[in-house]
Structures are given as structure tokens and as C-alpha cells.
């Protein structure tokens, strides 16, 4: 399939992240333009559209049907994703869907079935950490083998605070879902079991809110991944990761910025918001997405596929069961369709310093 240039994108849902994606696509993604916007809040749609000179559609369905729209971004709230992703597949248009692909395994199943029937990968899921230079450098070391066979991974996902509608369950489905995707991607293995522990609750949490949680993932080969998910950490948006191998370890560096040492102390900036920490990764994921569409190959997806979205949701469902049962819960996946078994083109190289053993 040959695509147009620039790629004309329509964005559905322009709240916090949707507006950010609109500005990213319109202002700093080479080869992309935003031509159409839809949002349940029409005033919000109009205001964001005015920032980039796009048209406004009354509904997401109308936007997908617009002949000028080459590709669709879905950044509305999770339960609305399925309808729009299915409509984009039916229209044969590449669709970038923010996480989650859909909040239930059944909804993800329907998306997989539709894409398999179309015979072409059109769905990319917004697990942007796969595009983060620090995570990519870490994976390069794990894959390179210099630290030996991976045994364990320690991770922490600490938010400063969350809105009052946030629930204990959302710590699994909205927060730790990124760590779940990282674990699957880091080790190229499925997660087969999930345990969720909660103990002493933060005094900053609402009554009844189980924060922090310790989420333990087990991969198919037995690698254990512990994720501290903590959403009232107060001090920073603090993302950590360390893989322990048989011969060494590799960890995310403390900061992408400079370390200042003076007057007997070291100072390093720690972001307070996810948007600051991951903006370069969001930029990279959209550059890669637009490039793959413009290249016009068989598949119009890069990075996390619909299968990855399905597997993450299945892990989250097991995580929710584990949160309530207090015991380890198994993750049962359907057989992986052939469509998702071929590898994708590799993303560009990482920022590993010269001479780092890979
Ligand atoms: P948000 O600020 O609430 O924005 C969602 C927007 O979608 C709102 O304007 C909402 O309108 C609109 N909307 C709701 N239902 C719709 C529908 N059926 N059709 C069209 N528009 C609809 O949410 P957000 O924080 O941006 O999150 C959006 C999605 O991105 C979620 O799936 C979230 O999990 C994901 N996300 C991912 C990351 C990441 O790190 N990758 C970070 C943040 C968010 P109303 O306000 O009127 O309902």
C-alpha cells in the first residue's frame, strides 16, 4: 500500500494526552499533519482544533469515515477505545490507540479477531516506554548478554499524587500496566502469573485505598519482576528499573539531565509529572508511527501491537483477581494468531555510551 505524504491524522479525544499528541503531531512530527479532531466535549474539540487549524467532527465515527483522514489516534477514555479501533480497522486505516487497547480481554479479543480477518496489522498501542532511550539502552544490554541470563527485575512506578477518582484497581490497570508491558518486552516472554500485595497504607491515600502495592509478575521462563506501584509518593514522578542477571545488573540511569555536585551534595532533577519524564519517548513513538505509515509496507504498525495490548489487559485482569484474592493468579492467553508472529523492523539504535558491554 502506498501512503500519502504528509500523513493526515485525525485525533479522537483531546483531553490531557490527546491534546499533547495533537500538538506533537502538528508541530514536531515530520511528515504528519492533524486535519480532524473529535471529542465528546465539543468546546474542547473546537479549542484544540483551532490551535492547529484542524476541522472538528461531531463524532469519532464521522472522523474515521472522513476520506481526508489517513490515520487515526484514539486518546479518549479506555472504555471507548474498542468502538473506534474496530471502526478504523474496518476502514483499513492505521490506528494508534492509547493504552489500554481496551479494558477487558473480551473487547481485546474482538479487536484481534477483526485485525486477523483484515489480514494486516493496523493497530499500534501507546506503550511509549518501548521508545524511551533509557529502557532501550537497558534492553540492549539484556539482549546483548553481558550480564548473563536475566533472573529478576526490580521496578518502581511512583506518582506524586492521583485525582480523587483513582481506585486501588487503577493502580494495576492504569499505573502498573506500563511495567507489565515493559516486562513482556524486556524479556520477550509472556507473563504467566501475577501476585499483588498491599500492606501498610500511605497516610496520604484516601480511606480504603490500597496504596502502595507490590506487584509480582512471573514470566514463562520463571523470571520474577517486582513492581512497587505507589501513587501518592508526594516527592516526584520516580521511575526505576533494574534487571539482575547471572553475571551482573543493568539499571535505568537516575536522570537524563546533568548531575550538579556542590557544597558537599549532589543535585539531580527528578521529574514531577509523567509527561515530562516521557516526552522524548512520546515524540519517538509518533515519529516511528508516522514513518512506518509513510513507508507503506504490509503492516502499518510499529512497537506494541494489538497482541501486546491484549496480553497487557489479560495480565491486568489477573492482577485485579490477585488484588482481591491475595494469592497468585495465572494469566491464560489465547493462542497467538500467526499475524503477530512475524517480527517487526527494529527501532533505531539506543543511546548506550560508547564501549558499554552489550
Ligand atoms: P482525559 O483528560 O479525560 O481526556 C479524554 C478526552 O476524551 C476527554 O476530552 C473526554 O471528554 C473525551 N471523550 C470521552 N469519551 C469520548 C468518546 N466516546 N468519544 C470521543 N471523546 C471522548 O483523559 P487522558 O488522561 O487524556 O487519557 C486518555 C487516554 O490516554 C486513556 O486511555 C489513558 O489511559 C491514556 N493515557 C496514557 C498515558 C501514557 O502514559 N501512555 C498517559 C495518560 C493517559 P469528557 O471529558 O467530556 O468525557
Task: Describe the protein.
By secondary structure, the chain is α/β, with parallel strands linked by helices. It is built from 10 helices and 15 strands. Strands 12-11-7-10-9-8-15 form a 7-stranded mixed sheet. A 6-stranded parallel sheet has the order 3-2-1-4-5-6, with helices on both faces. A two-stranded antiparallel ribbon has the order 13-14. The protein starts with 6 loop residues before the first strand and ends in a 28-residue tail after the last strand. The structure holds NADP nicotinamide-adenine-dinucleotide phosphate. The site of NADP nicotinamide-adenine-dinucleotide phosphate has 24 residues, from helix 1.
Summary keywords:
358 residues; alpha/beta; 7-stranded mixed sheet; 6-stranded parallel sheet; 35% helix; globular; binds NADP nicotinamide-adenine-dinucleotide phosphate
Q: Helicity range of the residues?
A: 25-40%
What spatial form do the alpha-carbon principal axes imply?
globular
Low-confidence regions: none
The number of E-state strands comes to 15
The ligands bound in this entry are: NADP nicotinamide-adenine-dinucleotide phosphate
Cα distance spanning the termini: 37 Å
Whole-angstrom Rg: 20 Å
Order of helices and strands: EHEHEHEHEHEHEHHEEEEEEEHHE
Tell me the number of helical segments per DSSP (H or I, 4 or more residues long): 10
Structural category: alpha/beta
* Main pleated sheet: 7 strands, mixed
Tell me the fraction of residues in β-strands, as a range.
15-25%
Strand order of the largest sheet: 12-11-7-10-9-8-15
On the 0 to 100 scale, the average pLDDT is: 94
Amino acid at each position: 500500500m502506498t501512503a500519502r505524504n504528509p500523513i493526515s491524522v485525525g485525533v479522537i479525544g483531546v483531553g490531557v494526552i490527546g491534546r499533547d499528541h495533537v500538538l506533537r503531531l502538528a508541530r514536531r512530527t515530520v511528515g504528519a499533519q492533524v486535519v480532524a479532531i473529535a471529542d465528546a466535549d465539543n468546546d474542547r474539540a473546537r479549542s484544540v482544533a483551532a490551535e492547529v487549524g484542524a476541522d472538528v467532527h461531531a463524532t469519532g465515527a464521522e472522523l474515521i469515515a472522513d476520506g481526508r483522514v489517513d490515520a487515526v489516534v484514539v486518546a479518549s477514555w479506555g472504555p471507548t477505545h474498542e468502538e473506534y479501533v474496530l471502526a478504523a480497522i474496518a476502514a483499513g486505516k492505521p490506528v494508534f490507540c492509547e493504552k489500554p487497547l481496551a479494558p477487558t480481554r473480551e473487547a481485546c479479543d474482538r479487536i484481534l479477531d477483526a485485525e486477523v480477518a483484515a489480514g494486516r496489522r493496523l493497530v499500534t498501542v501507546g506503550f511509549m516506554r518501548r521508545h524511551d532511550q533509557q529502557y532501550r539502552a537497558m534492553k540492549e544490554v539484556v539482549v546483548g548478554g553481558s550480564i548473563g541470563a536475566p533472573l529478576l527485575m526490580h521496578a518502581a512506578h511512583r506518582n506524586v499524587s492521583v485525582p480523587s477518582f483513582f481506585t486501588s484497581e487503577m493502580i494495576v490497570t492504569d499505573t502498573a500496566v506500563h511495567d507489565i508491558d515493559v516486562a513482556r518486552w524486556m524479556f520477550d516472554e509472556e507473563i504467566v502469573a501475577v501476585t499483588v500485595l498491599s500492606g501498610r497504607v500511605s497516610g496520604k491515600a484516601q480511606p480504603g485505598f490500597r496504596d502502595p502495592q507490590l506487584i509480582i509478575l512471573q514470566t514463562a521462563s520463571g523470571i520474577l519482576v517486582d513492581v512497587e506501584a505507589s501513587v501518592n509518593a508526594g516527592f516526584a514522578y520516580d521511575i526505576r528499573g533494574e534487571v539482575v542477571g547471572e553475571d551482573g545488573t543493568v539499571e535505568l540511569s537516575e536522570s537524563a539531565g546533568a548531575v550538579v555536585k556542590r557544597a558537599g551534595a549532589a543535585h539531580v532533577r527528578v521529574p514531577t509529572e509523567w509527561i515530562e519524564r516521557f516526552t522524548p519517548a512520546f515524540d519517538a513513538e509518533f515519529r516511528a508511527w508516522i514513518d512506518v505509515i509513510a513507508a507503506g509496507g504490509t503492516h502499518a504498525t510499529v512497537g506494541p501491537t494489538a497482541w501486546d495490548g491484549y496480553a497487557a489487559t489479560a495480565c491486568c485482569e489477573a492482577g485485579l483477581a490477585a488484588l482481591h484474592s491475595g494469592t497468585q493468579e495465572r494469566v491464560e492467553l489465547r493462542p497467538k494468531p500467526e499475524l503477530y508472529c512475524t517480527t517487526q523492523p527494529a527501532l533505531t539504535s539506543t543511546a548506550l555510551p560508547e564501549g558499554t558491554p552489550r
